[in-house]
Prior knowledge:
Helix content is 93%, strand content 0%. It is mainly alpha-helical. The protein has one domain.
Amino acid sequence: YSQLLEILVIVVNYGPQSLWHYFLLETQLALMALSSVAWLTA
């Protein structure tokens, strides 16, 4: 719920295109975390 509110604030403040950048960044960070975990456990 709080993250939804955060996203709403981002859209209102910076416009819809910023949301795309936000999602790309989140996905990149998630992938990096996953790959580092996979690398550590390998």
